[in-house]
Design a protein that fits this description.
Blueprint: E1 19-23, E2 26-30, H1 34-44, H2 48-55, H3 62-73, H4 82-88, H5 94-108
Antiparallel strand pairs: 1-2
């Protein structure tokens, strides 16, 4: 029986939400999941979840920025090394890198399935 090819965790996956990053005529695809961030944290030697918070005001460190980009690229470009990812980050590519990370991270956040009234919110007032 021929082996079927899977599109899961690739840019062709209809479920995954990828952001595009274009640098030097190449298009890279970013998507996040917690496992990718945790694995990249080890290689980057930086706290990447803090980097995401710092991203909103561009206060993340160089190691956090490189680690976040690396984590986002893992699904679609699994053979890229962290050093290769670091070469994509230059003064002229910073705005595009920041934007792609932001878009990919926001797209990766599932909508809450919890009723907003749960977890301490008071129920709506009845008349």
């Amino acid at each position: 029986m021929p082996k079927s090819e899977s599109v899961a965790s690739t840019p062709a996956d209809p479920v995954a939400q990828f952001a595009e990053l274009k640098i030097d005529g190449e298009t890279y695809h970013l998507a996040y999941d917690f496992n990718a961030i945790a694995e990249a944290e080890k290689l980057a030697g930086a706290k990447l979840l803090l980097g995401i918070a710092g991203l909103m005001n561009t206060a993340c460190t160089a190691a956090q920025l490189r680690g976040l980009l690396y984590a986002g690229l893992r699904k679609a470009q699994p053979k890229m090394t962290i050093a290769e990812v670091g070469q994509l980050i230059r003064i002229d590519t910073l705005p595009a890198v920041y934007e792609a990370i932001r878009v990919a991270y926001e797209a990766s956040m599932p909508e809450s399935k919890q009723d907003p009234r749960e977890g301490g919110s008071p129920p709506p007032a009845s008349n």
